[in-house]
Amino acid sequence: MRQGLVVQGLSKSFKGAPHPALEEFSLSLAPGSCTAVLGPSGSGKSTLLRTVAGLEIPDRGSVLLDGQDLATVRPERRGMAMVFQRPLLFPHLNVLDNVAFAARIRGVPRRRARADAESFLELVQMQGTGRRAVTGLSGGQQQRVAIARGLAARPAVLLLDEPFSALDPELRSAMHELLSHVREQLNPMVLMVTHDRDEASAVADQLALISEGTLLQHSSVEAMYTRPVSLQVSRLMGGTNEVPGTIRGGVHYSALGAHALPADHPWAEGPATLLIRPERIIVLEDHNPGLPAVITRIRARGPRRLMTVEAAGVTLNAEETTCPHPAPGDTVRLQLPTSALAAVAPQPTAETSALISPTPKVPA
Amino acid sequence: MFLPETEVLITRSRPKPRVPGALLAVPAIVIVAFVVVGGSAMVTAQSLGLMPLVGRPELSTAAYTAHGGDLLVGGGLSLAIAGTSTLLACLIGFMAALIMMQGRWCGKLVAAMSSLSIPLPHIVGAAATGLLLADSGLLARVFGTAERWPPLVGGPWWAAVIFEYAWKESAFVGLVLAGTLATRSVDYEETAALLGAGRLGRLRHVLLPLSLPALMTSGTIAFIYSFGSYEVAWLLGRPYPEPLPVMALRLYNSVTLTSRPEAAAVAVVTAAVSLCAVLMALAFLRKIPLWR
Amino acid sequence: MAVTLPPGLPREALRKDAARNGLTRSRAAGRILRTATAAALAVWFVLPLVPLGLWVFADRWSYPAPLPQHWGLENVDSALSRGAATGFAGSLALGLAVSALATPLGVLAARSLAFHPSRWSALFSALLFAPLALPAFVTVFGLNVLLVRLQVPSSAGVVLVLTAYALPYTTYVMRLAFGAHDLGFEEEACTLGATRGQVFLRVQLPLIAPALARAAFLAFLVGWSDYLVTVLIGGGSLVTVPLLVASAAAGTGNDGIVAVLSLIALAPPLALLLFAGMTGRRRPGARP
């Protein structure tokens, strides 16, 4: 009976670290899902993965796989393969024997183990490299082999610890392709940690946002962007537009006027900050309907443009425009589509805003 | 234009130094070459009768055949002593390295205790072994078995000699292994564990192969050292049969005219066996993919 | 005679504390087994030193008694009267001379091997490591004739041969250090406006200092612990502690003196080791 992976109330602190690496962390993963744990460096995400794998012993809390508590199960019996940021291919074995490692350990005869390994090499598009020494492979190839080696162990959960962050961008998107290919073929349960939200959104169907060892939000990728549960989540996901105001009857009132919030969510009455992602604001030429605003600054971001506009004393960031040649000082019209709006409790206290600022790296 | 990475590294040139960089090694090379090449050439010449103390130089192998039987027995004895002590040193050293790697207080204790014996001269180690294992030594006193105490020092099994070499070299092997293993083995062990390898599996499939090059290298160094070392066997051994270095030194210091070439012949045989051991070790290391 | 020396000491290598790691978490049986093994190994490494420690303070310790009957420092006086002070000075001078020669030469050789690979490199390294494969008495038999004909003073001959036997260690240690050493640091310093001298003093030297200290220590040990080369080439003109230990240990009834001399042989390197261990720990930048 497959019930997936459940993490309950995990806590773990390291000696000499300013705050716990994990604090009452709970998360559950459905079978076949791919969940990305997203967080800045030192947020405890690697500790989470190592604890799930059994490499770290939690101070409190439990890890359950298909309903079974893993507290007394040693790492080698947990059925979890992990791929680290460094490929860590065994230097004394060739490519094929690296992939065949798990089978050989279980006592599978060499010939069968190698035949099996060959099929996994094929899966990661590394067929024909089996006889080569691992030192002769490039970084991306090594990481492919490492993934094949993990998959060949037939893990219940595949753990990925920032496996692509040492690769260059093209290679990284190729690896994202590879991962979705693997998911189509084998449908494993994947738990991955990363600090790159684009990567997390590209490969995962569920996101868990972690900061200072605490789970901030666990939801679908879409919801993480459009329905952040707090200002902190919004900011960690790259949201920059925050408009203070009040909600009355599902409508947000602020300096920008009244904006109806999406009807599919019960919005709490009272003070609230309106959020809208820069890429969802529609900037139109002056003769169109919409909020009048003035462009104060334009920054080029490669093919895109990031505009800072001011409307009714509120500063907003926007990316898209239909204006042919926008320039600072131009008057434009803004439209804020209802479906793109969300609201959260207003300005965090001093304590929580400190959480968002960069923190020193702790051993994770 | 796109250059491969290595080419970029080379073309990133530095200001040209006054002396070609490779020549920096020359002073060291001159000294080593003088000692190694000069020494072995001269000793070979002596052994072949080309440098007699008196008389005309004449090429002969007489020095090699003069004590042919003793040379064979001595060679066998030296091989047995060096082989046994190296085997023990590798076993104990590997075990010590495993304990050291755990890094808890017991690992630190073993590391500290083993580094204690490193700076000790072998002659001091031999003297200390004598005080420990002789029939009037500490162990015989503590266990109070005066008459039944086995002849460890000067006995037929060369036990004290083997003990001394194994003791000193196990610390050497252990520290070398701990040094090479500690830098990377934890990550590899974790990876192996997550692929399903238990303690024994990790030892057999990860730790042992990873430490094999260092084990072979340090073991070979220890073997050659104990094979060609004089003072320990001289102090703790018995008069007959003699290991090669003891035999060589006795002949070297003896007063007869023919003894110098004979001593040189023993030295050449010792060197030849040592060289064979090195070549065998290198041939073995070459087969390990880990070895660069 | 050469000694076998490990290139590095484990303290530096054991940075990662595995104590709370899930892999090393042990059941009771495993813990007992490991503690017992560790205890046995500790005893193995320290046992031969125990009789030395006892004999140093044993004024009278006749045969069957398991412990000395009279404690005192008479052995120290006897050792001094047999020339322990001269031997100590001789050993110290020999160790320092070998270290002073083999360390800089090893640095140069390692730099050549690390940064200036040429078609000679393979030959150079084969030669530099050859002393490890050649017992010292073999070369000394041959060199004795040569050194006498070239009229090299015997002490200089001893230093020369031991330097050759120390060079593999210093070269190896420095080669490792240069291997981990990034030329980028020096280039960065150059771009920041440092002259060649400043680059050497402020960048290269601090970066290689720990390895330099280790190489110098190993070379010192080669001179300090030598017996055979000093006897064969020195011919008695150079008296060192190992020579005194050998002559005392070869006789009978000198156990106390042997112990004192052995302690003299052990104390300085051990003090250096402890000193290095303590200062090394305090400097945060000191990496091997």
UniProtKB/TrEMBL annotation, chain A:
Q: What PROSITE patterns does the record tag this protein with?
A: ABC_TRANSPORTER_1, ABC_TRANSPORTER_2
- UniProt entry tagged with the keyword Oxidoreductase: no
Tell me the ranges covered by the ABC transporter domain, including all copies: 5-237
Looking at the keywords, is Nucleotide-binding present?
yes
Q: Which UniProt keywords apply?
A: ATP-binding, Cell membrane, Ion transport, Iron, Iron transport, Membrane, Nucleotide-binding, Transport
| Range of residues in the leader sequence | none
Q: Which SMART domains match?
A: AAA
Start and end residues of each stretch annotated as Disordered: 344-364
- Its recorded name reads Spermidine/putrescine transport system ATP-binding protein
Classification via InterPro entries: AAA+_ATPase, ABC_SmlMolc_Importer, ABC_transporter-like_ATP-bd, ABC_transporter-like_CS, ABC_transpr_FbpC, Mo/tungstate-bd_C_term_dom, P-loop_NTPase, Transp-assoc_OB_typ2
GO function term, MF aspect, one: ATP binding
Identify the Gene3D superfamilies for this entry: P-loop containing nucleotide triphosphate hydrolases
Q: Which organism is it from?
A: Pseudarthrobacter enclensis
Which CDD domains does this entry report, sorted A to Z?
ABC_Carb_Solutes_like (cd03259)
UniProtKB/TrEMBL annotation, chain C:
Key words, A-Z: Cell inner membrane, Cell membrane, Membrane, Transmembrane, Transmembrane helix, Transport
Membrane topology for this entry? Answer: Multi-pass membrane protein
Query: Where is it mostly found?
Result: membrane
Q: Which residues cross the membrane?
A: 35-58, 88-110, 122-143, 155-178, 199-221, 227-250, 257-278
Write out the annotated subcellular location: Cell inner membrane; Cell membrane
Family to which this protein belongs: Belongs to the binding-protein-dependent transport system permease family.
What name appears for this protein in its UniProt entry? Answer: Spermidine/putrescine transport system permease protein
Its lineage reads: Bacteria, Bacillati, Actinomycetota, Actinomycetes, Micrococcales
